[in-house]
Write a structure and sequence with these properties.
It is built from 11 helices and 9 strands. It is of the alpha+beta class. The strands form 3 sheets. A 5-stranded mixed β-sheet has the order 4-6-7-9-8. A two-stranded antiparallel sheet has the order 1-2. Its main location: membrane.
């Protein structure tokens, strides 16, 4: 059943479903019972009314026929002087009285019955042939026939009254059925809405927690307000969130430890390769010098990957920072200085903005975004091509674009390249290969600064990335 307290708590999902169906079904059962009893009353009323109407009408006709029979029998007795006819006359008169008593109890026309009683008293005075002859020639039979005609009319009027009353009662029953159906419909709807609310509310709470779990947001810790099974499911989701957080922290610690542990031997390898390349340990053959170059290049690549992993780990930790005004032109100039050799090697040209704008950001994260975008432009850009560094103000925000000539990014890859460890189908120019997390780090950094990084269409460049930040 349901626990009654400050809130309505079904003990189990099965109890909730069963109770909901019973509550929705109960008004329907009441309606069926009410309709059955009403129809039974209606059927009995129609049956009784029909029987009464037929009996009253038939009795009125029989009374009229008997009055005519009495007149004929009396006249025949007066002419034929047969004593058996007098006996038959009195038998018919007794039968007439019995029918009249029944009719008087059924059809209320008191004044007419009094006149007929006087007629009957006049007929009962016939005890011998002399009295029969006196009454046979009397005009009193015309009055008797008139009284019977009036009785038939009164009976028909009474039947019409019964029919009208039956119609009124039928209309009353119809209104009662409509009223009861409306009450049952409203009750069923209310119970159904209550059942839906009690079912949907905990499911919505669980859905919200699942969405929070997928978004990496702390879900609500309050118990799910619903059946025991859903409450337990909510608790398991909270446990799953805690477990995922624990595994996430273990992953970050592993990345941090591995990255730092790799940097020390990597530095020794780079130093040794540099010493060999500088022929400090003695002269080298051309093959040996080429091998030293390969060691130097790959150690640099490994160092770049380690630094990217450290950046990714640092952003994932969601460290607190303060946004301050940063000069975009200074950031662009620093990029040119860092990538000067790569630009010269590929013969690439860089166009800078004509004015310097300030954006709200944190130096490390802003530099990380622009470095990743510019690095991709240099690596994937066409030789002898152009790189455009642009910035413009749009309302309270600043739009920064890094665009280059080269192989366009296919439409299917324009969102996938922002996922961690995902790369497009375009080949990177040069010996160093990408790690697949540069654009992911750039987008996360942009969002941490309150901005957004997207791919954009450009009329002059083949590839363009657009960064929007607060001014």
């Amino acid at each position: 059943m349901l626990k009654v307290g400050r809130k309505l708590h079904p003990r189990s999902l099965l109890t909730l479903v069963a109770t909901g169906y019973l509550l929705a079904l109960l008004p329907l059962l009441l309606l069926i019972w009410h309709d059955y009893s009403t129809l039974s009353r209606f059927s009995n009323m129609v049956e009784e009314g029909s029987t009464k109407v037929v009996e009253d009408t038939r009795r009125a006709i029989q009374l009229t026929n008997l009055s005519e029979e009495l007149e004929r029998t009396l006249r025949r007795y007066a002419v034929l002087e047969d004593a058996t006819l007098l006996t038959r006359f009195h038998q018919q008169l007794a039968s007439y009285r019995e029918l009249l008593v029944l009719h008087r109890n059924s059809v209320p026309v008191t004044g007419l019955y009094h006149a007929i009683e006087q007629d009957l008293s006049w007929l009962e005075g016939t005890q011998d042939l002399k009295g029969a002859k006196e009454r046979a020639d009397s005009d009193h039979f015309a009055s008797l026939n008139e009284h019977h005609q009036q009785l038939e009319e009164a009976t028909n009027a009474w039947v019409d009254t019964l029919v009208s009353g039956a119609k009124v009662r039928i209309n009353t029953l119809q209104h009662e059925l409509w009223w009861m159906s409306g009450v049952v419909g409203i009750s069923t709807t209310l119970f159904s809405l209550l059942f839906i609310y009690l079912t949907v509310r905990p499911i919505r709470q669980i859905e919200s927690r699942i969405l929070s779990l997928g978004a990496g947001i702390e879900p609500e810790r309050e118990p799910v307000d619903g059946p025991a099974e859903l409450v337990e499911l909510g608790e398991r989701l909270s446990w799953l969130h805690d477990r995922l957080q624990e595994l996430e922290q273990q992953k970050y610690r592993f990345l941090r430890h591995v990255s730092h542990e790799l940097k020390t031997p990597l530095a020794c390898l780079r130093e040794g390769a540099d010493l060999l390349s500088e022929r400090v340990a003695g002269p080298l053959t051309s093959d040996q010098y080429e091998i030293c170059g390969m060691l130097t290049d790959n150690s640099r690549r490994l160092q770049s990957l380690i630094e990217r992993l450290l950046d990714f780990n640092r952003l994932s930790q969601q460290e607190s920072f303060e946004r301050t005004p940063q000069s975009l032109l200074q950031q662009f100039m620093a990029l040119l200085e860092t990538y000067r050799l790569h630009l010269d090697a590929k013969g690439m040209r860089v166009e800078l903005p004509t004015e310097d704008l300030l954006v709200l950001g944190e130096p490390y994260r802003l530099g990380l975004i622009l470095d990743n975008l510019f690095s991709n432009a240099v690596s994937y850009g066409a030789e002898q091509g152009t790189i455009w560094l642009r910035c413009r103000r749009e309302g309270a925000r600043v739009v920064v674009e890094v665009a280059n000539e080269g192989t366009p990014i296919p439409a299917a890859d324009r969102e996938r390249i922002f996922e961690p460890f995902e790369q497009g189908n375009s080949r990177r120019q040069g010996l160093l290969k990408g790690s697949g997390i540069g654009l992911s780090i750039a987008r996360e950094s942009a969002r941490s600064l309150g901005g957004e990084l997207t791919w954009a269409e450009d009329a002059h460049a083949d590839v363009c990335f657009r960064l929007i930040l607060d001014a």
